[in-house]
Amino acid sequence: MPPATAAPSWSDLIAALLRREDLTTDQARWAMGQVMGGEASPVQLAGFLVALRAKGETVDELRGLADVMLEHAHRIDVPGPSVDIVGTGGDRLHSVNISTMASVVVAATGLRVVKHGNRAASSSSGSADVLEALGVDLTLDPGQVAAVAERAGITFCFANAFHPSMRHAAVARRELGVGTAFNALGPLTNPGQPTYAAVGAADARLAPLLAGVFAGRGRPAAVFRGDDGLDELTLATSSTVWWVASGEVTELSVAPGDVGLASAPVEALRGGDAAFNADVARRVLAGETGPVRDAVVLNAGMALAVAEGAPGAPTRDSLVAALARGVARAQEAVDAGAAAALLERWVATTRELAAG
């Protein structure tokens, strides 16, 4: 009879990482299970995260961490096709909340949006901050959050409420003060696990890994990064896109001019606090033109392109064509007043449910 395999330990895993050995998915799952169960000390977790970051994370490692985080989350079921539009943050460019505005625009086209996000960490205003300033009630329980999606066509899963076990990692993450694998987990751990994902990633090293996790899960997705470092499709230059379809990842490139949008410097997208960004959102969704609107419809267009699916083998031409159709639909939703109306409906629905 073969000897029993020894249970993993923090010292074994950290030593392996220091030898620059990749962990298996099961080893990563064990580590995250310890964290989610409150059994890992801040020192053990900090050592693990730093060693993992120094070695460089792999798709299998991120998949293991994300899967266990999802197992400990409050999950919701939203019927029908849906999409998440989310950025990892961390670009330190302090732009307005582009993915949040793009989410409203996409929902206004008729594709249901299940957005996942949190308060600001490295930016001036996170998605939760700006939505709160816009009047969306963030105090709803998971059942109410799912109901909002069906009534309003869009909903928001507030990470703090849906991932309570992440409180066990708070001390280590706060005291480290540097980006770790945990910064990549948000886009992978949406409690509603929507059909499609459009994910902006500031870290060029992590972007293809996120795409690899989506591919392994069989989920259509686009992971993208502005070549100027923006965790969105940028107007300033080209953007790299990791297109995920049929379990495969294809790296492509797009630029705003490909879909008839003017270039603009990243400074034109600069935001402020939640109140400032909420005012920008209201004006853009009401039809104000300019670089912010262009950035919003560009990123909304990518989410719609993912849902449409570029026909045949993905090529730059097929991606640009699908993106152009998505941008046109996004512009129509804004110009017809559907985006502004949807925001009003979203706010009203959350308040009605919160009031009982």
UniProtKB/TrEMBL annotation:
Cofactors: Mg(2+)
Reactions mediated catalytically: N-(5-phospho-beta-D-ribosyl)anthranilate + diphosphate = 5-phospho-alpha-D-ribose 1-diphosphate + anthranilate
Regions that span the bilayer: none
SUPFAM superfamilies attached to this UniProt entry: Nucleoside phosphorylase/phosphoribosyltransferase catalytic domain, Nucleoside phosphorylase/phosphoribosyltransferase N-terminal domain
Residues engaged in binding 5-phospho-alpha-D-ribose 1-diphosphate: 87, 90-91, 95, 97-100, 115-123, 127
A Gene Ontology molecular function term of the record: anthranilate phosphoribosyltransferase activity
Sequence positions that bind anthranilate 1: G87, N118
EC number annotated for this UniProt entry: 2.4.2.18
Binding residue positions for Mg(2+) 1: S99, E232
Gene Ontology CC terms, in alphabetical order: cytosol
Function summary: Catalyzes the transfer of the phosphoribosyl group of 5-phosphorylribose-1-pyrophosphate (PRPP) to anthranilate to yield N-(5'-phosphoribosyl)-anthranilate (PRA).
Protein name according to UniProt: Anthranilate phosphoribosyltransferase
Gene: trpD
